TrEMBL record:
Family: Belongs to the kinesin light chain family.
Entry GO terms, CC: cytoplasm; kinesin complex; microtubule
Record-linked PANTHER family: KINESIN LIGHT CHAIN
GO biological process: microtubule-based movement
Key words, A-Z: Coiled coil, Cytoplasm, Cytoskeleton, Metal-binding, Microtubule, Motor protein, Repeat, TPR repeat, Zinc, Zinc-finger
All residue ranges annotated as the MYND-type domain in the record: 147-188
SMART domains found in the cross-reference section: TPR
Molecular-function annotations in GO: identical protein binding; kinesin binding; transcription corepressor activity; zinc ion binding
PROSITE patterns: TPR, ZF_MYND_2
Name of the protein described by the UniProt record: MYND-type domain-containing protein
Length: 197
């Protein structure tokens, strides 16, 4: 048979591969759908969509791509809401490794978001010293208010106030602290920071 009858393959060095294009388009589509479900509190339905997004992104972009990290972080947030902390930690750690390795300053804040998510995982496990340590990695410039509905949640903050009880969680002010108290009070233990090595 003539070689001419073979289909022409994409040359990845010249054209972006099909997988790459699919990863960007399909990956962000799946991510948007999943985020919408999360906004409605439908975390069980969001989980498989985040996993599908991760699959196409890993195939098309790679396991260490910053766009793949976005889905690792989002799946981690989903597992926090589902109380599946071990799985949350695995995906958040993957996201953190990529985001912290990035040299783009735009990724600093996303790294801080992932550190705050990991802080919540450790907090929910009752490991407040570890939560504190993780949250303070970006101190003093790259920390976040821990109240996840804070208007300034994705803004780098300085001079955050720490919880006077456990000294393991940080807020932009008393307003955010009191709004997060309903969630945090289950985990807040006085002087937990003294357990830190
Ligand atoms: Zn705040
Ligand atoms: Zn506290």
């Amino acid at each position: 048979m003539s070689k001419k009858s073979k289909p022409v393959r994409f040359d990845a060095t010249v054209n972006p591969s099909v997988d790459h294009t699919l990863a960007i388009a399909e990956g962000s589509h799946l991510n948007n759908l999943a985020q919408r479900l999360m906004g409605l509190g439908r975390y069980e339905e969001a989980e498989p969509l985040h996993k599908q997004a991760i699959e196409v992104k890993e195939r098309g972009l790679g396991k260490d791509h910053i766009t793949t990290a976005l889905s690792y972080n989002a799946l981690g947030e989903t597992y926090i809401e589902l109380g599946r902390l071990d799985e949350a930690e695995i995906f958040l750690q993957k996201a953190l490794d990529i985001r912290q390795a990035s040299t783009r300053s735009i990724d600093d804040i996303d790294a801080a978001v992932t550190r705050e998510n990991l802080g919540v995982v450790y907090e929910m496990r009752g490991d407040l010293p570890r939560a504190r340590q993780m949250r303070r990695v970006g101190a003093p410039d790259n920390m976040l208010c821990a109240y996840n509905k804070c208007e300034l949640y994705k803004v780098k903050r300085r001079n955050l106030l720490q919880c006077g009880g456990c000294k393991s969680i940080y807020y932009c002010g008393a307003g955010c602290q009191s709004k997060d108290w309903k969630r945090h009070k289950k985990y807040c233990k006085r002087d937990a920071s003294k357990q830190a090595a």
